[in-house]
Amino acid sequence: MKQLHKLSTTTHHRRDEESPTILTAHQPYSPKAQKHPYSRSLPRSLSYLLTEQRLLFIIVGILIGSTFFILQPTLSRLAPPDPDRRRPSSSSYVPTSVSYWNRESVSSPYRSWGGSGRVPAGVGRKRSRIVVTGGAGFVGSHLVDKLLRRGDDVIVIDNFFTGRKENVMHHFGDPRFELVRHDVVEPILLEVDQIYHLACPASPVHYKYNPVKTIISLMDYKTNVMGTLNMLGLAKRIGAKFLLTSTSEVYGDPLEHPQKETYWGHVNPIGVRSCYDEGKRTAETLTMDYHRGAGVEVRIARIFNTYGPRMCLDDGRVVSNFVAQAIRKQPLTVYGDGQQTRSFQYVADLVDGLMALMEGEHVGPFNLGNPGEFTMLELAEVVKETIDSSATIEFKPNTADDPHKRKPDISKAKELLNWEPKVPLRDGLPLMVADFRNRILNEDEGKGNK
Ligand code: NAD
Ligand code: UDP
């Protein structure tokens, strides 16, 4: 009986909640009902929302919440990273990334918050995931800097054969940067939008003069062929864009001057440079075959002699040799009679060209180089003017199959990529001297001969 009574009270009470009009009719006093006359005609839950500006608060809350979620991704890109997280703790850290050599620090489409961290001024561009093979090398590390500054996510793949961790260690701690020790001769699976394929033991010391030069040459060939095949396979599998960094060496000792992309070259297939030259020619062939046969979106850059900070100190290339020799007060070694010519491009110009090529719509190949042509003797004079006018010159025998002249015709890149180099040799050389001085000094300190 007690239970029955209880049940009937509860039921009555529930019914009362559902019909506020009935409730007010039976109850003598209800302050809320009197305060808000519309509560008589509206369902009770709605009336609850409308009372005491609750609805207003809810709407304002929803507005604030949605504004935050819309703006959050943009704000997180604009926010400066914690500078301490970017800086490695190693005591041997040398700020090689500091932009004293980077002309963007002077006139820049990027806003700088100091060091190497910058953001693009134009927000709203889709952020890409990008692999740079050979990204710990000379050219690769500058490319990585610029891609990160643009706001992309970058994965570097490198086996450190000629590259150095120091070239990218200023990005350690940046969540948008990853470094993978891997040999591109082995396959790898990653999910990315673009692949810049630079990995290659590129410097002449490694493919000409090394005591184990045959092995190194073969590594060169193998990297160019197997490495390129693996990266093309990856691009095909995941639908990524693929850019090959080929070389002016595909023209060999050219019979056409300046060299246009239409020139098929004059290469010795059995000489000491062949592994590099033929390796790159094969890499171009594979790239075009994957494009035609498998529909991979590809780009081919033919890079001419490039110089700048972070070049290997003793890689045997002429600019790094002359600059290091002048700083160390050694004679500048000119091979042959010094009348052979090259055209030297500053690394920041090359990086601009590579990115314009990747983002553009044309497969190529494109010559990327500075058409300013110098004999090796003229180069030696510029180095003397820049570093030490008292430096002497020492002539040495030249190497086999050395191209007599080289100069890019860049009209195709100018027209289709809207790209041309901006830094003349006399402006670019001083930009690498501070970096070289620093590293030579550190090397000497390491050896204990201060
Ligand atoms: P680099 O030697 O400084 O960089 C090459 C990078 O590739 C290094 O970090 C090296 O460790 C890495 N690497 C080599 N073999 C590898 C492998 N099997 N797996 C993974 N990583 C590997 O040379 P660079 O001057 O920066 O050249 C970059 C690219 O540009 C190369 O493909 C080169 O052929 C091309 N290129 C450069 C120049 C130039 O003047 N610098 C001229 C023409 C072409
Ligand atoms: N060279 C030179 N002295 C050196 C190193 C190179 O005179 O200490 C010459 C070399 O013989 C060649 C030119 O400089 O004619 C460019 O050589 P590098 O190896 O830099 O580039 P590549 O030959 O691949 O263009």
TrEMBL record:
InterPro entries: NAD(P)-bd_dom, NAD(P)-bd_dom_sf, UXS-like. It comes from the Eukaryota. Residues 1-10 have a biased composition (Polar residues). GO terms for cellular component: Golgi cisterna membrane. Keywords: Decarboxylase, Golgi apparatus, Lyase, Membrane, NAD, Transmembrane, Transmembrane helix. Residues 1-39 are annotated as: Disordered. Residues 132-430 form the NAD(P)-binding domain. It is found in: Golgi apparatus, Golgi stack membrane. It holds the Pfam family GDP_Man_Dehyd. Signal peptide: none annotated. Belongs to the NAD(P)-dependent epimerase/dehydratase family. UDP-glucuronic acid decarboxylase subfamily. Catalyzes the NAD-dependent decarboxylation of UDP-glucuronic acid to UDP-xylose. Necessary for the biosynthesis of the core tetrasaccharide in glycosaminoglycan biosynthesis. This is UDP-glucuronate decarboxylase. It comes from Rhododendron simsii. The lineage of its organism: Eukaryota, Viridiplantae, Streptophyta, Embryophyta, Tracheophyta.
